[in-house]
Amino acid sequence: MSVDPAFVAQLSTWLAATDIAVLELRGPDGTLRLVQAGSVVRSEAVSPVEDIAAAEAEVVAAPGVGVFLDRHPLRLEPAAAPGSQHAAGEPLGFLRTGPILQAVSAPCDCIVEGVLAAHGATVGFGTPLVAIVPIDTGETP
Amino acid sequence: MVTRVLIANRGEIAVRVIRACRLLGIGTVAVHSQADADSAHVLMADQALCIGPAPVRKSYLDQAAILAVAEVTGADAIHPGYGFLSENADFADRVEAAGLTFIGPTGATMRIMGDKISAKRAMRAAGVPCVPGLDEGLPDDPARVVAIARDIGYPLILKAAGGGGGRGMRRVDREADLLDALAVTREEGRSAFGNGEIYAERFLTHPRHVEIQVIADTHGNALWLGSRDCSLQRRHQKVIEEAPAPGIDAAKIAEVGERCAQACRSIGYRGVGTFEFLYEDGSFYFIEMNTRLQVEHPVTEMTAGLDLVELQIRVARGEALPLAQADVACRGHAFECRLNAEDPETFAPSPGLITAWQMAGGPGVRVDSHAGAGYRVPPYYDSLIGKLIVHGATREDALARLRAALGETVVEGIRTNLPLHRRLVDDAAFGTGGVDIHHLERMMAGDAA
Questions:
Q1: What is this model's ipTM?
Q2: CATH number of the domain encompassing residue A126
Q3: A131/A108 same-domain check
Q4: Which end of chain A has fewer CB atoms within 10 angstroms, the N or the C?
Q5: Residue B415 in contact with residue B344, Cβ under 8 Å?
């Protein structure tokens, strides 16, 4: 995770002045963990792969039959990419059946591990489309 | 033009349709539930897509999902097989409204023949003999109902106009029970079929189930392709079928067959269909028409020497029938045993893993199946795992072949009705031919007594 070293130093100073054991910053390209180790604060960078592997990946499957589109027809960039973060309900891709375009939505707040279906692939009910790792928001439903 | 057929079905009939398409050089698209992901029809088709989870309402009966598959795969025709959506007039309409070919009759024809009262009226108009009774629903006035019933005579049977497969029917033996029975049947008809119309007809006490196979094209041609006897039934589920119906004068069958073909011409029928009759004391009585391919169609294929599914597809793509009535002949005799994954005594379904599968072979033996060793019979669907079909020069030859074939057949890991079939082919009355529709249940009741 790329974070300004000066910002990390500032956070470490603040953390050392508290009784908080660990401060973790998560972003699309990884996680930075600041850990109180006696009188010093140690920073640990966690790669996206390690980070995601540590959590349990889930698969978002096709809710029906259609042609999978990784992006909205009016957009150039894919709706989801490895490492991208999405709130629950945001589109991760689309299913097109004739004139009908149906969003494939994130079932929860999540980080995308990988897009499993090719853009333009014909898919059936239950075809794995996107692998995600749910983000624990700490909220009690 | 039909270039790619979507098969809206599963199991042996989906495999059967794929085979016919291959012969015609037509592409195939299979649809399947999650439970059928490894099924034979999925592996055999050129393309396959899952349309939903195991329950049929969310998969094989999901019209929108099936039409979506046709859309994304470019299928230009849909073969409904039997069961599921095969006699759903609304589905046939939706298929055609989507610009696709429905391999079967039009929705309008299905509606006429799907309603027992309108079907009976149409058949009587075409000269097809019907069971004594009115061509209209019973009135609400109790006095008129009683008078109509006296005219028909007792015992009689009340039938829900929208019913079928043995549901929505009630036998009435005496006048004192009539009105109560009518009220119950009417309520059943309303709740089960959304149609409270009830009609009454004479109850035949020892009929046989004899049916006539027909096919009609869109050029005004209609043929009858022979008779079948499907009297060996339990709870209206056929167990063994044969062609032709034994012991019935060929001229009599030809007379009824020709009327069936004429009825097809009259109503503008298209595709294959079956006229079902009760046959008692030398007379035929029309009961209903099935506007689709039948499970037992292979026995007609064996005796007529025709591929009915191929003809069905040819007719659907607008071709005229390639033969005339004079070209249709009945050669030899054929039997079909329905192999079911079920307890041979209690008839309870027996899903599970097939650990051994050895089918019979040799001259005159055919097996239509989607199952095999390693196949897991799912608990969600009909228990039919295959059909053993034999053909011989005479009924005796065919029966001998059937006995030998059943002796060779091995299915292990699940319970099947093979023991029942082996017993039936050694039954003296069945051996003679011409048992009535109650024969099997009498036999089973005798066991229980």
A1: 0.84
A2: 2.40.50.100
A3: yes
A4: C
A5: yes
Region A29-40: mean pLDDT is: 70
Residue A67 with chain B: CB contacts under 8 Å: 72
pLDDT at B293: 98
Whether residues A64 and A126 fall in one domain: yes
All residues of chain A having their beta carbon less than 8 Å from the beta carbon of residue B73 are 122
Parent domain of A7? 1-55
**What are B68-119's pLDDT values in tens digits?**
999 999 999 999 999 999 999 999 999 999 999 999 999 999 999 988 788 8
Tokens of B216: 């009609």
CB contacts of B69 in chain A (<8 Å) are 65, 124
Q: Tell me, yes or no, whether A73 and A34 share the same domain.
A: no
Inspect the interface and report whether the beta carbons of B68 and A65 lie closer than 8 Å: yes
CA distance B375 to B41: 13
Number of residues written out for chain B: 449
Task: Tell whether A66 and A133 lie within a shared domain.
Answer: yes
The active-site residue, picked from B94, B186, B292, B338, is B292
CB contact under 8 A, A65 and B34: no
B29 and B5 in contact (C-beta within 8 Å)? yes
Q: Using one digit for the tens of pLDDT, what is the confidence trace for B322-358?
A: 999 999 999 999 999 999 999 988 899 999 999 999 9
> Are A29 and A65 found together in one domain?
no
Domain count, chain A: 2
Q: Are A70 and A40 contained in the same domain? A: no
For residue range B34-65, what is the model confidence (pLDDT) as tens digits? 999 999 999 999 999 999 999 999 999 999 99
Q: How far apart are CA B415 and CA B351, in angstroms?
A: 8
